[in-house]
Write a structure and sequence with these properties.
The complex is a heterodimer of chains A (368) and B (198).
Chain A (H helix, E strand, L loop, with lengths): L1 H21 L23 H7 L27 H8 L2 E2 L11 E3 L2 H35 L12 E3 L3 H30 L1 H4 L1 H33 L7 H8 L18 H25 L7 H29 L6 H6 L2 E3 H7 L1 H7 L13
Helix pairs in contact in A: 1-10, 2-3, 4-10, 5-7, 7-9, 9-10, 12-13
Chain B lengths: L3 E5 L9 H10 L8 E6 L7 E6 L7 H5 L5 E3 L5 E3 L9 H5 L35 H7 L11 H4 L6 E5 H15 L8 H5 L6
Antiparallel strand pairs in B: 1-6, 2-3, 4-5
Protein backbone atom coordinates (compact mmCIF):
# COMPACT_ATOMS: atom_id res chain seq x y z
CA UNK A 1 0.00 0.00 0.00
CA UNK A 2 2.75 2.33 1.01
CA UNK A 3 4.83 1.56 -2.04
CA UNK A 4 1.82 2.14 -4.22
CA UNK A 5 1.44 5.59 -2.71
CA UNK A 6 5.08 6.41 -3.25
CA UNK A 7 4.84 5.21 -6.82
CA UNK A 8 1.79 7.32 -7.29
CA UNK A 9 3.41 10.47 -5.99
CA UNK A 10 6.43 9.81 -8.19
CA UNK A 11 4.21 9.50 -11.22
CA UNK A 12 2.40 12.68 -10.26
CA UNK A 13 5.67 14.50 -9.85
CA UNK A 14 6.97 13.33 -13.18
CA UNK A 15 3.76 14.25 -14.93
CA UNK A 16 3.75 17.69 -13.42
CA UNK A 17 7.28 18.18 -14.67
CA UNK A 18 6.33 17.03 -18.13
CA UNK A 19 3.23 19.12 -18.02
CA UNK A 20 5.18 22.13 -16.90
CA UNK A 21 6.50 22.52 -20.41
CA UNK A 22 3.03 22.46 -21.87
CA UNK A 23 1.36 24.48 -19.22
CA UNK A 24 1.53 27.87 -20.85
CA UNK A 25 -2.23 27.55 -21.18
CA UNK A 26 -2.68 25.59 -18.02
CA UNK A 27 -4.42 26.92 -14.99
CA UNK A 28 -2.14 28.48 -12.47
CA UNK A 29 0.03 25.52 -11.64
CA UNK A 30 -1.41 23.55 -8.80
CA UNK A 31 0.23 25.00 -5.77
CA UNK A 32 2.60 22.08 -5.46
CA UNK A 33 1.90 18.50 -4.63
CA UNK A 34 0.33 17.97 -1.25
CA UNK A 35 3.52 16.60 0.19
CA UNK A 36 5.40 19.75 -0.63
CA UNK A 37 2.63 22.13 0.33
CA UNK A 38 3.50 24.57 3.06
CA UNK A 39 1.79 23.98 6.36
CA UNK A 40 -1.57 25.55 5.75
CA UNK A 41 -1.99 28.33 8.21
CA UNK A 42 0.76 28.96 10.66
CA UNK A 43 1.69 32.45 9.74
CA UNK A 44 0.63 35.05 12.22
CA UNK A 45 2.21 37.65 10.00
CA UNK A 46 0.15 40.73 9.59
CA UNK A 47 0.34 41.35 5.83
CA UNK A 48 -2.50 39.14 4.71
CA UNK A 49 -4.49 40.08 7.78
CA UNK A 50 -4.46 43.75 7.05
CA UNK A 51 -6.09 43.07 3.70
CA UNK A 52 -8.67 40.68 4.99
CA UNK A 53 -11.05 43.20 6.33
CA UNK A 54 -13.18 41.00 8.46
CA UNK A 55 -12.16 37.55 7.41
CA UNK A 56 -9.29 36.38 9.48
CA UNK A 57 -6.80 33.65 9.05
CA UNK A 58 -8.19 30.92 11.22
CA UNK A 59 -4.82 30.25 12.75
CA UNK A 60 -4.60 33.68 14.22
CA UNK A 61 -5.68 33.97 17.79
CA UNK A 62 -8.02 36.62 19.05
CA UNK A 63 -5.15 38.99 19.76
CA UNK A 64 -4.48 39.23 16.06
CA UNK A 65 -7.91 40.63 15.54
CA UNK A 66 -7.05 43.80 17.38
CA UNK A 67 -5.35 45.39 14.42
CA UNK A 68 -6.95 48.71 13.52
CA UNK A 69 -8.30 47.45 10.23
CA UNK A 70 -10.29 44.75 11.94
CA UNK A 71 -13.24 46.84 12.87
CA UNK A 72 -15.95 44.57 14.16
CA UNK A 73 -18.58 46.43 12.23
CA UNK A 74 -16.75 45.40 9.10
CA UNK A 75 -18.45 42.12 9.87
CA UNK A 76 -18.58 40.13 6.71
CA UNK A 77 -16.58 42.45 4.54
CA UNK A 78 -14.24 39.79 3.42
CA UNK A 79 -11.65 39.56 0.79
CA UNK A 80 -10.87 35.92 0.84
CA UNK A 81 -9.41 36.02 -2.64
CA UNK A 82 -6.39 37.48 -0.88
CA UNK A 83 -6.71 34.91 1.83
CA UNK A 84 -6.84 32.11 -0.69
CA UNK A 85 -3.75 33.34 -2.42
CA UNK A 86 -1.95 33.36 0.88
CA UNK A 87 -3.09 29.95 2.03
CA UNK A 88 -4.21 27.83 -0.85
CA UNK A 89 -4.81 25.04 -1.04
CA UNK A 90 -5.98 25.02 2.50
CA UNK A 91 -5.61 21.52 3.73
CA UNK A 92 -6.59 20.35 7.16
CA UNK A 93 -7.80 17.14 8.70
CA UNK A 94 -11.06 15.30 8.44
CA UNK A 95 -12.35 12.43 10.55
CA UNK A 96 -14.21 10.81 7.65
CA UNK A 97 -12.60 8.14 5.47
CA UNK A 98 -12.42 10.27 2.32
CA UNK A 99 -9.14 12.10 2.92
CA UNK A 100 -9.48 14.03 -0.34
CA UNK A 101 -12.08 16.12 1.46
CA UNK A 102 -9.44 17.42 3.85
CA UNK A 103 -8.74 20.10 1.26
CA UNK A 104 -10.96 22.91 2.36
CA UNK A 105 -10.71 25.18 -0.65
CA UNK A 106 -9.00 24.65 -4.00
CA UNK A 107 -9.02 28.00 -5.75
CA UNK A 108 -7.29 26.45 -8.79
CA UNK A 109 -10.74 25.25 -9.78
CA UNK A 110 -11.54 28.79 -10.81
CA UNK A 111 -8.44 28.99 -12.98
CA UNK A 112 -9.43 25.72 -14.58
CA UNK A 113 -12.89 27.03 -15.23
CA UNK A 114 -11.48 30.20 -16.77
CA UNK A 115 -9.18 28.19 -19.05
CA UNK A 116 -11.87 25.76 -20.17
CA UNK A 117 -14.61 28.29 -20.71
CA UNK A 118 -12.29 30.91 -22.18
CA UNK A 119 -9.21 30.34 -24.32
CA UNK A 120 -9.59 26.61 -24.86
CA UNK A 121 -13.15 26.78 -26.09
CA UNK A 122 -12.73 29.95 -28.11
CA UNK A 123 -9.30 29.33 -29.63
CA UNK A 124 -10.26 25.71 -30.27
CA UNK A 125 -13.27 26.71 -32.31
CA UNK A 126 -11.25 29.22 -34.34
CA UNK A 127 -8.60 26.58 -34.93
CA UNK A 128 -11.06 24.04 -36.30
CA UNK A 129 -13.14 26.50 -38.31
CA UNK A 130 -9.99 28.22 -39.54
CA UNK A 131 -8.58 24.94 -40.82
CA UNK A 132 -11.81 24.14 -42.62
CA UNK A 133 -11.88 27.60 -44.26
CA UNK A 134 -8.25 27.26 -45.26
CA UNK A 135 -8.90 23.92 -46.91
CA UNK A 136 -11.97 25.19 -48.73
CA UNK A 137 -9.95 28.14 -50.01
CA UNK A 138 -7.16 25.78 -51.06
CA UNK A 139 -9.61 23.55 -52.89
CA UNK A 140 -11.16 26.49 -54.71
CA UNK A 141 -7.79 27.88 -55.76
CA UNK A 142 -5.83 24.72 -56.49
CA UNK A 143 -8.57 22.14 -57.03
CA UNK A 144 -7.87 18.47 -56.77
CA UNK A 145 -4.20 17.69 -57.28
CA UNK A 146 -4.08 15.36 -60.26
CA UNK A 147 -1.35 13.09 -61.54
CA UNK A 148 0.39 15.40 -64.01
CA UNK A 149 1.47 12.60 -66.32
CA UNK A 150 -1.83 10.73 -66.10
CA UNK A 151 -2.41 7.19 -64.97
CA UNK A 152 0.08 4.61 -66.22
CA UNK A 153 -2.23 1.69 -65.55
CA UNK A 154 0.54 -0.13 -63.66
CA UNK A 155 0.27 -0.17 -59.87
CA UNK A 156 2.63 -0.81 -56.99
CA UNK A 157 1.79 -1.73 -53.44
CA UNK A 158 2.21 1.21 -51.12
CA UNK A 159 0.77 -0.09 -47.86
CA UNK A 160 0.24 -3.76 -47.05
CA UNK A 161 -2.91 -5.04 -45.43
CA UNK A 162 -1.54 -4.85 -41.90
CA UNK A 163 -0.42 -1.26 -42.37
CA UNK A 164 -3.85 -0.38 -43.70
CA UNK A 165 -5.55 -2.19 -40.83
CA UNK A 166 -3.49 -0.26 -38.29
CA UNK A 167 -4.16 3.02 -40.05
CA UNK A 168 -7.90 2.53 -40.22
CA UNK A 169 -8.17 1.23 -36.68
CA UNK A 170 -6.42 4.36 -35.43
CA UNK A 171 -8.26 6.62 -37.83
CA UNK A 172 -11.67 5.18 -37.04
CA UNK A 173 -11.03 5.46 -33.32
CA UNK A 174 -9.70 8.98 -33.72
CA UNK A 175 -12.72 10.25 -35.63
CA UNK A 176 -15.11 8.86 -33.03
CA UNK A 177 -12.94 10.14 -30.19
CA UNK A 178 -12.77 13.58 -31.77
CA UNK A 179 -16.52 13.84 -32.30
CA UNK A 180 -17.37 12.52 -28.85
CA UNK A 181 -14.72 14.75 -27.30
CA UNK A 182 -15.88 17.86 -29.13
CA UNK A 183 -19.36 17.08 -27.84
CA UNK A 184 -18.11 17.66 -24.31
CA UNK A 185 -16.71 21.07 -25.22
CA UNK A 186 -19.23 22.30 -27.78
CA UNK A 187 -22.28 20.04 -27.50
CA UNK A 188 -23.87 22.23 -24.87
CA UNK A 189 -23.94 25.10 -27.34
CA UNK A 190 -24.55 23.27 -30.62
CA UNK A 191 -26.50 20.09 -29.88
CA UNK A 192 -28.31 20.76 -26.63
CA UNK A 193 -30.53 23.49 -28.10
CA UNK A 194 -31.39 21.18 -31.01
CA UNK A 195 -32.00 17.95 -29.13
CA UNK A 196 -33.27 19.09 -25.78
CA UNK A 197 -31.83 18.02 -22.42
CA UNK A 198 -32.98 14.38 -22.28
CA UNK A 199 -31.85 13.37 -25.76
CA UNK A 200 -28.63 15.30 -25.39
CA UNK A 201 -27.80 13.53 -22.14
CA UNK A 202 -28.62 10.18 -23.74
CA UNK A 203 -26.19 10.71 -26.60
CA UNK A 204 -23.60 12.29 -24.29
CA UNK A 205 -23.60 9.23 -22.05
CA UNK A 206 -23.23 6.96 -25.09
CA UNK A 207 -20.47 9.24 -26.39
CA UNK A 208 -18.71 9.10 -23.05
CA UNK A 209 -18.53 5.32 -23.11
CA UNK A 210 -17.46 5.28 -26.75
CA UNK A 211 -14.77 7.79 -25.87
CA UNK A 212 -13.49 5.83 -22.90
CA UNK A 213 -13.38 2.44 -24.60
CA UNK A 214 -12.32 3.33 -28.15
CA UNK A 215 -9.42 5.16 -26.55
CA UNK A 216 -7.72 1.79 -26.17
CA UNK A 217 -7.95 1.13 -29.90
CA UNK A 218 -6.42 4.53 -30.52
CA UNK A 219 -3.60 3.94 -28.06
CA UNK A 220 -2.82 0.53 -29.57
CA UNK A 221 -2.86 2.13 -33.01
CA UNK A 222 -0.38 4.79 -31.92
CA UNK A 223 2.03 2.14 -30.69
CA UNK A 224 1.69 0.02 -33.83
CA UNK A 225 2.04 2.97 -36.20
CA UNK A 226 5.16 4.02 -34.39
CA UNK A 227 6.67 0.56 -34.74
CA UNK A 228 5.62 0.22 -38.37
CA UNK A 229 6.65 3.60 -39.71
CA UNK A 230 9.15 5.28 -37.45
CA UNK A 231 12.11 4.19 -39.61
CA UNK A 232 10.55 5.92 -42.62
CA UNK A 233 9.88 9.11 -40.69
CA UNK A 234 13.31 10.16 -39.52
CA UNK A 235 13.81 13.71 -40.78
CA UNK A 236 16.42 14.02 -43.52
CA UNK A 237 17.96 16.63 -45.83
CA UNK A 238 15.59 15.66 -48.60
CA UNK A 239 12.76 17.03 -46.48
CA UNK A 240 14.24 20.52 -46.78
CA UNK A 241 13.94 20.35 -50.55
CA UNK A 242 10.36 19.21 -50.20
CA UNK A 243 9.52 22.00 -47.78
CA UNK A 244 11.31 24.61 -49.94
CA UNK A 245 8.77 24.15 -52.74
CA UNK A 246 5.83 23.59 -50.43
CA UNK A 247 5.76 19.95 -51.41
CA UNK A 248 4.66 20.93 -54.89
CA UNK A 249 1.20 21.37 -53.48
CA UNK A 250 0.78 24.88 -54.76
CA UNK A 251 1.69 24.51 -58.42
CA UNK A 252 1.32 22.01 -61.19
CA UNK A 253 4.39 20.12 -62.33
CA UNK A 254 6.38 20.65 -59.14
CA UNK A 255 7.51 17.33 -57.71
CA UNK A 256 10.16 17.51 -55.03
CA UNK A 257 11.96 14.32 -53.97
CA UNK A 258 10.50 12.10 -51.31
CA UNK A 259 11.08 8.66 -49.88
CA UNK A 260 8.19 6.57 -48.59
CA UNK A 261 7.00 9.54 -46.59
CA UNK A 262 7.49 13.15 -47.63
CA UNK A 263 8.11 15.98 -45.19
CA UNK A 264 4.42 16.75 -44.89
CA UNK A 265 3.62 13.18 -44.02
CA UNK A 266 6.44 13.14 -41.51
CA UNK A 267 4.89 16.15 -39.84
CA UNK A 268 1.59 14.28 -39.65
CA UNK A 269 3.35 11.19 -38.32
CA UNK A 270 5.15 12.99 -35.52
CA UNK A 271 2.09 15.09 -34.68
CA UNK A 272 0.08 11.94 -34.28
CA UNK A 273 2.76 10.15 -32.28
CA UNK A 274 3.67 13.02 -29.95
CA UNK A 275 0.14 14.36 -29.72
CA UNK A 276 -1.27 10.87 -29.40
CA UNK A 277 1.01 10.06 -26.49
CA UNK A 278 0.12 13.31 -24.73
CA UNK A 279 -3.59 12.67 -25.28
CA UNK A 280 -3.26 9.05 -24.18
CA UNK A 281 -1.39 9.80 -20.96
CA UNK A 282 -3.68 12.66 -19.99
CA UNK A 283 -6.75 10.66 -21.00
CA UNK A 284 -5.82 7.62 -18.94
CA UNK A 285 -5.08 9.97 -16.08
CA UNK A 286 -8.64 11.31 -16.25
CA UNK A 287 -10.18 7.90 -16.83
CA UNK A 288 -8.95 6.65 -13.47
CA UNK A 289 -9.77 9.50 -11.12
CA UNK A 290 -7.48 9.85 -8.11
CA UNK A 291 -5.56 6.72 -9.00
CA UNK A 292 -2.68 8.65 -10.50
CA UNK A 293 -3.04 12.06 -8.95
CA UNK A 294 -5.09 14.59 -7.06
CA UNK A 295 -7.59 17.08 -8.40
CA UNK A 296 -4.89 19.61 -9.28
CA UNK A 297 -3.15 17.12 -11.53
CA UNK A 298 -6.47 16.16 -13.07
CA UNK A 299 -7.19 19.79 -13.92
CA UNK A 300 -3.80 20.05 -15.57
CA UNK A 301 -4.30 16.80 -17.46
CA UNK A 302 -7.71 17.93 -18.68
CA UNK A 303 -6.19 21.12 -20.08
CA UNK A 304 -3.41 19.17 -21.82
CA UNK A 305 -5.97 16.70 -23.14
CA UNK A 306 -8.20 19.44 -24.52
CA UNK A 307 -5.48 21.61 -26.04
CA UNK A 308 -3.53 18.80 -27.69
CA UNK A 309 -6.71 17.14 -28.93
CA UNK A 310 -7.95 20.32 -30.56
CA UNK A 311 -4.62 20.96 -32.26
CA UNK A 312 -4.35 17.36 -33.44
CA UNK A 313 -7.92 17.40 -34.70
CA UNK A 314 -7.14 20.47 -36.80
CA UNK A 315 -4.05 18.74 -38.22
CA UNK A 316 -5.98 15.58 -38.94
CA UNK A 317 -8.69 17.51 -40.77
CA UNK A 318 -5.98 18.65 -43.19
CA UNK A 319 -4.70 15.08 -43.42
CA UNK A 320 -8.17 13.79 -44.22
CA UNK A 321 -8.60 16.44 -46.89
CA UNK A 322 -5.37 15.74 -48.74
CA UNK A 323 -5.90 12.00 -48.40
CA UNK A 324 -9.34 12.06 -49.97
CA UNK A 325 -10.75 15.07 -51.79
CA UNK A 326 -7.48 16.91 -52.21
CA UNK A 327 -5.36 14.55 -54.29
CA UNK A 328 -6.02 11.97 -56.97
CA UNK A 329 -4.96 8.46 -55.95
CA UNK A 330 -4.03 9.48 -52.40
CA UNK A 331 -6.97 7.56 -51.01
CA UNK A 332 -6.02 4.40 -52.88
CA UNK A 333 -2.73 4.24 -51.01
CA UNK A 334 -4.65 3.51 -47.82
CA UNK A 335 -7.75 2.14 -49.52
CA UNK A 336 -6.63 -0.72 -51.73
CA UNK A 337 -2.98 -0.24 -50.86
CA UNK A 338 -2.19 0.00 -54.60
CA UNK A 339 -1.08 3.23 -56.25
CA UNK A 340 -0.41 4.06 -59.84
CA UNK A 341 3.25 4.11 -60.79
CA UNK A 342 3.02 7.61 -62.18
CA UNK A 343 1.52 8.83 -58.93
CA UNK A 344 4.35 7.19 -57.05
CA UNK A 345 6.91 8.66 -59.43
CA UNK A 346 5.58 12.16 -58.92
CA UNK A 347 5.03 12.10 -55.18
CA UNK A 348 7.47 9.49 -53.86
CA UNK A 349 10.08 9.19 -56.59
CA UNK A 350 12.95 7.96 -54.42
CA UNK A 351 10.71 5.35 -52.80
CA UNK A 352 9.49 4.03 -56.17
CA UNK A 353 13.02 3.85 -57.56
CA UNK A 354 14.21 1.90 -54.52
CA UNK A 355 11.17 -0.37 -54.71
CA UNK A 356 11.87 -1.22 -58.36
CA UNK A 357 15.61 -1.42 -57.89
CA UNK A 358 16.23 1.49 -60.24
CA UNK A 359 18.71 4.31 -59.91
CA UNK A 360 17.40 7.24 -57.95
CA UNK A 361 15.94 9.93 -60.22
CA UNK A 362 17.77 13.24 -60.38
CA UNK A 363 16.07 16.23 -58.80
CA UNK A 364 17.07 19.81 -59.19
CA UNK A 365 15.98 22.47 -56.79
CA UNK A 366 13.04 24.59 -57.66
CA UNK A 367 10.58 24.08 -60.47
CA UNK A 368 11.27 21.51 -63.11
CA UNK B 1 -37.22 36.74 -1.92
CA UNK B 2 -34.64 35.23 0.33
CA UNK B 3 -31.20 34.49 -1.02
CA UNK B 4 -30.14 31.30 0.71
CA UNK B 5 -26.56 31.05 1.96
CA UNK B 6 -24.47 29.10 4.42
CA UNK B 7 -22.21 30.83 6.93
CA UNK B 8 -19.71 29.11 9.15
CA UNK B 9 -18.43 30.91 12.23
CA UNK B 10 -15.09 29.22 12.87
CA UNK B 11 -14.96 30.75 16.37
CA UNK B 12 -17.83 28.49 17.35
CA UNK B 13 -17.32 25.22 15.48
CA UNK B 14 -16.21 22.46 17.86
CA UNK B 15 -15.69 19.79 15.19
CA UNK B 16 -18.47 17.65 16.62
CA UNK B 17 -19.43 16.49 13.13
CA UNK B 18 -23.11 16.50 14.02
CA UNK B 19 -23.86 18.44 10.83
CA UNK B 20 -22.17 15.69 8.82
CA UNK B 21 -24.13 12.99 10.59
CA UNK B 22 -27.42 14.84 10.45
CA UNK B 23 -27.03 15.38 6.72
CA UNK B 24 -26.27 11.74 6.07
CA UNK B 25 -29.23 10.64 8.17
CA UNK B 26 -31.74 13.14 6.89
CA UNK B 27 -31.04 12.43 3.24
CA UNK B 28 -29.98 8.79 3.54
CA UNK B 29 -26.85 9.72 1.66
CA UNK B 30 -25.12 6.67 0.13
CA UNK B 31 -21.91 5.26 1.55
CA UNK B 32 -18.80 7.13 0.59
CA UNK B 33 -20.56 10.38 -0.17
CA UNK B 34 -20.19 13.38 2.10
CA UNK B 35 -22.36 16.27 1.19
CA UNK B 36 -20.92 18.09 4.17
CA UNK B 37 -17.65 17.62 6.01
CA UNK B 38 -15.78 19.30 8.84
CA UNK B 39 -12.17 20.24 8.11
CA UNK B 40 -9.89 21.05 11.01
CA UNK B 41 -6.98 23.35 10.29
CA UNK B 42 -3.90 23.33 12.54
CA UNK B 43 -5.21 20.39 14.50
CA UNK B 44 -3.73 20.37 17.99
CA UNK B 45 -1.81 23.58 17.46
CA UNK B 46 -2.46 27.11 18.65
CA UNK B 47 -5.07 28.72 16.49
CA UNK B 48 -6.84 25.50 15.62
CA UNK B 49 -10.06 26.14 13.73
CA UNK B 50 -12.68 23.83 12.35
CA UNK B 51 -14.83 24.64 9.37
CA UNK B 52 -17.90 22.80 8.23
CA UNK B 53 -17.98 22.88 4.47
CA UNK B 54 -20.50 21.86 1.84
CA UNK B 55 -21.76 23.27 -1.41
CA UNK B 56 -21.92 27.03 -0.87
CA UNK B 57 -24.55 27.59 -3.57
CA UNK B 58 -22.37 30.18 -5.25
CA UNK B 59 -23.71 33.25 -6.97
CA UNK B 60 -21.71 32.59 -10.13
CA UNK B 61 -21.47 28.85 -9.69
CA UNK B 62 -18.47 27.26 -11.44
CA UNK B 63 -20.23 23.88 -11.63
CA UNK B 64 -23.09 25.42 -13.59
CA UNK B 65 -20.66 27.15 -15.91
CA UNK B 66 -18.56 24.12 -16.82
CA UNK B 67 -21.20 21.36 -16.95
CA UNK B 68 -21.06 19.91 -20.49
CA UNK B 69 -24.73 18.89 -20.38
CA UNK B 70 -25.99 21.95 -18.51
CA UNK B 71 -27.68 19.86 -15.81
CA UNK B 72 -27.51 22.55 -13.10
CA UNK B 73 -30.06 25.18 -12.31
CA UNK B 74 -30.52 27.83 -9.70
CA UNK B 75 -33.73 28.25 -7.77
CA UNK B 76 -35.34 31.59 -7.13
CA UNK B 77 -33.81 31.44 -3.66
CA UNK B 78 -30.29 31.12 -5.05
CA UNK B 79 -29.90 27.42 -4.32
CA UNK B 80 -27.77 25.59 -6.89
CA UNK B 81 -29.37 22.24 -7.79
CA UNK B 82 -28.83 19.69 -10.50
CA UNK B 83 -30.70 16.94 -12.30
CA UNK B 84 -29.31 13.46 -11.77
CA UNK B 85 -31.27 12.35 -14.81
CA UNK B 86 -29.19 14.66 -16.98
CA UNK B 87 -25.81 14.28 -15.24
CA UNK B 88 -23.36 12.13 -17.19
CA UNK B 89 -20.80 11.80 -14.39
CA UNK B 90 -17.96 13.46 -16.29
CA UNK B 91 -16.34 15.10 -13.26
CA UNK B 92 -16.09 18.63 -14.65
CA UNK B 93 -18.03 20.20 -11.77
CA UNK B 94 -15.64 18.53 -9.38
CA UNK B 95 -12.63 20.01 -11.15
CA UNK B 96 -14.15 23.47 -11.10
CA UNK B 97 -15.67 23.64 -7.61
CA UNK B 98 -13.44 25.58 -5.21
CA UNK B 99 -15.04 23.83 -2.25
CA UNK B 100 -14.82 20.20 -3.36
CA UNK B 101 -18.57 19.85 -3.05
CA UNK B 102 -19.45 17.47 -5.91
CA UNK B 103 -19.20 13.82 -4.95
CA UNK B 104 -19.50 10.63 -6.97
CA UNK B 105 -20.90 7.33 -5.75
CA UNK B 106 -18.36 5.09 -7.47
CA UNK B 107 -14.62 4.76 -7.62
CA UNK B 108 -14.95 5.87 -11.19
CA UNK B 109 -12.62 3.82 -13.37
CA UNK B 110 -13.51 3.80 -17.07
CA UNK B 111 -15.76 6.77 -16.62
CA UNK B 112 -18.23 5.04 -14.36
CA UNK B 113 -18.38 7.61 -11.62
CA UNK B 114 -22.14 7.49 -11.46
CA UNK B 115 -24.33 10.53 -11.03
CA UNK B 116 -22.88 13.44 -9.15
CA UNK B 117 -24.25 14.09 -5.68
CA UNK B 118 -23.94 17.23 -3.62
CA UNK B 119 -25.59 19.31 -0.95
CA UNK B 120 -29.00 20.54 -2.06
CA UNK B 121 -29.47 23.06 0.74
CA UNK B 122 -32.18 20.56 1.71
CA UNK B 123 -34.07 21.68 -1.39
CA UNK B 124 -34.34 18.43 -3.37
CA UNK B 125 -34.11 18.44 -7.14
CA UNK B 126 -36.20 19.01 -10.24
CA UNK B 127 -38.79 16.34 -9.38
CA UNK B 128 -41.94 17.12 -7.43
CA UNK B 129 -40.71 17.87 -3.95
CA UNK B 130 -42.39 15.16 -1.90
CA UNK B 131 -42.04 12.14 -4.17
CA UNK B 132 -40.04 9.02 -3.37
CA UNK B 133 -38.09 9.49 -6.57
CA UNK B 134 -36.98 12.91 -5.46
CA UNK B 135 -36.02 11.62 -2.01
CA UNK B 136 -34.02 8.72 -3.44
CA UNK B 137 -32.02 10.98 -5.70
CA UNK B 138 -31.66 14.20 -3.76
CA UNK B 139 -32.83 13.58 -0.21
CA UNK B 140 -35.45 15.40 1.73
CA UNK B 141 -36.81 18.70 0.51
CA UNK B 142 -36.98 20.62 3.75
CA UNK B 143 -37.37 24.00 2.11
CA UNK B 144 -40.60 22.74 0.56
CA UNK B 145 -41.70 21.81 4.08
CA UNK B 146 -40.91 25.30 5.31
CA UNK B 147 -37.75 24.24 7.13
CA UNK B 148 -34.14 25.25 6.76
CA UNK B 149 -31.18 22.90 6.17
CA UNK B 150 -30.88 20.39 8.98
CA UNK B 151 -27.11 20.72 9.40
CA UNK B 152 -27.47 24.35 10.38
CA UNK B 153 -30.75 23.92 12.25
CA UNK B 154 -29.33 21.35 14.64
CA UNK B 155 -25.85 22.85 15.09
CA UNK B 156 -25.50 22.99 18.86
CA UNK B 157 -23.21 26.01 18.93
CA UNK B 158 -24.87 27.68 15.96
CA UNK B 159 -21.50 27.88 14.30
CA UNK B 160 -23.19 26.87 11.07
CA UNK B 161 -25.91 29.20 9.91
CA UNK B 162 -28.06 28.49 6.90
CA UNK B 163 -30.82 30.68 5.57
CA UNK B 164 -31.45 34.05 4.04
CA UNK B 165 -28.10 35.69 3.46
CA UNK B 166 -29.12 39.01 4.93
CA UNK B 167 -30.50 37.45 8.09
CA UNK B 168 -27.52 35.22 8.82
CA UNK B 169 -25.10 38.00 7.96
CA UNK B 170 -26.92 40.15 10.50
CA UNK B 171 -26.65 37.47 13.16
CA UNK B 172 -22.97 37.08 12.46
CA UNK B 173 -22.32 40.81 12.49
CA UNK B 174 -23.98 41.05 15.87
CA UNK B 175 -21.73 38.30 17.18
CA UNK B 176 -18.63 39.97 15.88
CA UNK B 177 -19.66 43.24 17.52
CA UNK B 178 -20.37 41.51 20.82
CA UNK B 179 -17.20 39.52 21.10
CA UNK B 180 -15.03 42.17 19.53
CA UNK B 181 -13.49 40.19 16.73
CA UNK B 182 -14.47 38.25 13.67
CA UNK B 183 -13.30 34.95 12.48
CA UNK B 184 -14.20 34.99 8.88
CA UNK B 185 -17.23 33.88 7.00
CA UNK B 186 -15.40 31.09 5.27
CA UNK B 187 -15.62 31.11 1.54
CA UNK B 188 -18.07 33.99 1.32
CA UNK B 189 -16.15 36.10 -1.13
CA UNK B 190 -15.40 33.03 -3.22
CA UNK B 191 -18.99 31.88 -3.23
CA UNK B 192 -20.95 35.10 -3.30
CA UNK B 193 -18.55 37.63 -4.77
CA UNK B 194 -17.97 41.06 -3.34
CA UNK B 195 -20.05 41.36 -0.20
CA UNK B 196 -22.87 43.83 -0.17
CA UNK B 197 -23.09 46.36 2.62
CA UNK B 198 -26.62 46.51 3.85
Amino acid sequence: MKSANILRSLVVGAALLVAGAASAQAPAPAPAAPAAAPPPVVSTAAPPMSRLDGVSVPAAGPSSYQSPSMRPEAGLMSNDAELLRALAPTRGQVTIPDQKLATLIQPAGRDWRAAVKGPIRVVGSWLLLGMCCLLIAFYLLRGKIMIDSGMSGRTVERFNSFERFVHWMTAGAFVVLAITGLNITYGRYLLLPLLGPDAFTAISVAFKYLHNYLAFGFMLGIVLMFVLWVRHNIPSKIDLQWIAVGGGLFAKGVHPPAEKFNAGQKIIFWSVIVGGVAISVSGVWLMFPFFLGDVASMQLMQVIHAVVSLVLTAIVIAHIYIGSLGMEQAFDAMGTGQVDENWAKEHHGLWLAKLKGQAAPQYKMGHD
Amino acid sequence: MARMKFLLDAERCTECNACVTACKNEHEVPWGINRRRVVTLNDGKPGERSISMACMHCTDAPCMAVCPVDCFYKTAEGVVLHSKDLCIGCGYCFYACPFGAPQYPQAGNFGTRGKMDKCTFCAGGPEASTTDASFAKYGRNRLAEGKLPLCAEMCSTKALLGGDGDVIAGIYRERVATRGYGSGAWGWATAYGAPSRT
